[in-house]
Amino acid sequence: MVQTNTVQRFQQYIDGEFEDGSEHFDSVNPATGEVWARMPAAGAADVDRAVRAAHRALNDPAWASLTASARGKLLYRLADLVAQHALRLAELETQDTGKIIRETRAQIGYVAEYYRYYAGVADKIQGAWLPVDKPDMEVTLRREPVGVVAGVVPWNSQLFLSAVKVGPALAAGCTIVLKASEDGPAPLLEFARLVHEAGFPAGVVNIVTGFGGDCGRTLTSHPLVSKIAFTGGPETARHVVRNSAENLAATSLELGGKSPVLVFDDADLDSAANAVVAGIFAATGQSCVAGSRLVVQRGIHDALVARLVAKAEAIRIGDPQDPATEMGPLATLRQHEHIERVLRASVEAGGRIVTGGQAPQAFARGFYFRPTIVDCPHPRVPSVEQELFGPVLSVVTFDTEADAVALANDTRYGLASGVFTRDLTRAHRLTRSLRAGIVWVNTYRAVSPIVPFGGYGLSGLGREGGLDAVLDYTRTKSVWIRT
Ligand code: NAD
């Protein structure tokens, strides 16, 4: 277990060295509201050193002359180390973000799997021979690493969200500076120790944490950065895109969501209810793909909502480190206040809270919030429109399939969507008409390293996962040789 009686200290990782950093900030345990760790706050000078180290490492023979399969072997080693240290990483993530240990342990299994996938991809990135209409010319296309990557992640699922950046970057031969979120950076700073142990040359991976306006801005506008892989909210993404006007780095954005789950009256109600509950309340609703809008057909509205209320009220809230706990606290007080504010406005706009809506009485300390369901008479209720990033399900009702599609697509986001129906012809139609990067039919939240992940509209730009996303970490060079 993580020691909590003394304040622990974490270090940043720059150019193969662990450093205390000159500035610090405190990290709060969301389950108690108490400071439990001191984190190094990287300022502009630290970030500049990290980017320069990554830039030097890019062309250093210790990294640049490794074969693709040698890079793959290092990634396999990293995957094994993640698996070996899964429990420690999971406990730290739970401690620093309040995400329950059941979920962090399960997710770190995926993190190791993703690194294994990218390890296998390293020697499958291929160039081409091009059949130009010139008999005396031999033209080939090489794929080279794009350069120094700036990876920026939010506080939820930092190990997972960084694996989809670090993995492809290293498979392609890039180097990376990863900025952990200022909220809950402990697992990523600990992960740096595994990178070191795996034997990556100094400077290939650098891991810092700090505040967005200072650390994040310096990193994403740095002239030596060639690619930015950002995950976070749309407002921050706008800053990042403005920052990238400085270096014109290729930028991928994985942003927020307001994902709809459509349930038709022919659906298997029990299986739909289980998926809707897991879709919204897992990770205390703090997940980009949270199915936060239930779009339900009128005839089954009451039956489904009754099932959901029963399940929501049965969720065991508790200490996130306890394996029996099913829902932990929100990660920050800021989140707690935001959710309360949006719920107040939603009730004023006609929303009816059918369960939850406040902190559980048993938890005076920490940032706990009850699983909440809001029945909404129209889609303009704020909880239907805004990403709350918390355990709040907003319900809207439809009569026809066309209404369902209109309600589902009535958002500027477009990350994920779910459809529950036994009519597969209808399901196929909906996979075409839903405006989202992912459509799950009779399931929700399934992921795999080989399947691209990303959104439409305000949910982002570009994709992570799958082979195409790895190619985003390369650039092509056309080589013409007169023969
Ligand atoms: P956030 O946008 O506030 O912060 C994300 C990261 O950006 C942090 O590391 C932060 O320090 C950094 N940052 C802040 N200002 C910056 C600046 N000016 N320049 C560069 N970096 C800056 O997000 P959050 O509150 O930590 O996380 C929640 C958001 O992330 C939600 O909107 C959620 O939906 C989204 N998210 C998306 C995905 C996805 O894959 N689509 C996954 C998880 C979370």
From TrEMBL:
Keywords for this protein: Oxidoreductase
PROSITE patterns attached to this UniProt entry: ALDEHYDE_DEHYDR_CYS, ALDEHYDE_DEHYDR_GLU
Entry keyword Cell membrane: no
Keyword Oxidoreductase in annotation: yes
InterPro entries assigned to the protein according to its UniProt record, in alphabetical order: Ald_DH/histidinol_DH (IPR016161), Ald_DH_C (IPR016163), Ald_DH_CS_CYS (IPR016160), Ald_DH_CS_GLU (IPR029510), Ald_DH_N (IPR016162), Aldehyde_DH_dom (IPR015590)
Organism domain of life: Bacteria
Entry-linked Gene3D superfamilies: Aldehyde Dehydrogenase, Chain A, domain 1 (3.40.605.10), Aldehyde Dehydrogenase, Chain A, domain 2 (3.40.309.10)
Domain Aldehyde dehydrogenase: 21-479
Family: Belongs to the aldehyde dehydrogenase family.
Protein name in the entry: Aldehyde dehydrogenase
